[in-house]
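Memo to structure team: turn this sequence into structure tokens by end of day. - J.P.
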Amino acid sequence: MSELVVEDLVAGYGDARVLHGVRLTVREGEICAILGPNGAGKTTLLRALSGMVKARGTVRLGGADLIGRPPDALARQGVAHVPEGRGTFMPLTVEENLRLGAFVRRGKAEVEADLERIHAYFPALKTRLKQTAGSLSGGEQQMLAIGRALMLRPRLLLLDEPSLGLAPLVTRELFRIVQAINAEERTTVVVVEQNAHLALGIAQQAHVLETGRIVLSGTAEEIRADEQVAQSYLGYRV
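Reply from structure team:
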């Protein structure tokens, strides 16, 4: 089970509180889009879910309590986080980056099979296995970051601004692949994204975060049809 349940989540940095009692549920195998202006706390939310910032409240994945556990423990629970800026290891090769994604796994044969699985999603990476990550284009680096996360065989995939700095054509292809991964592997996905059109196009549900609080929730269709969202994030009036 990979249902994500978040209740009364409070998180921040030092004495500065960023999240104020966030509550949401993402059913197993769904894609959830998190929208909101800059500074709303979207990145902090993903960091709290992956154990990168101190938080209190309730975070459960498939019934297992995740709150207060370090990132490596959450990785072993199947939580994979692709941070804003991709977070690839630039001096390492593409293959080395991918293998690092499987650091908590055992079973050489399964890891080798998953390398081929990643190549099927991202064929461009297969031809660049011996290149350093720093020599890749921005789009290829984002593919590598997602591929490395998938090597974990995650139950929950957290994506922070995957379209940042990418050309529109590359972005659309990346979102198509994320949708395929979700459909084929039933991976639960939470995506933070400024491009609301694309995020709502692949998500089943969405939440709007403002000043650390969720101010609007619903299905992707409901959020897309909301006049406030349409004017603020989609650029048109309902």
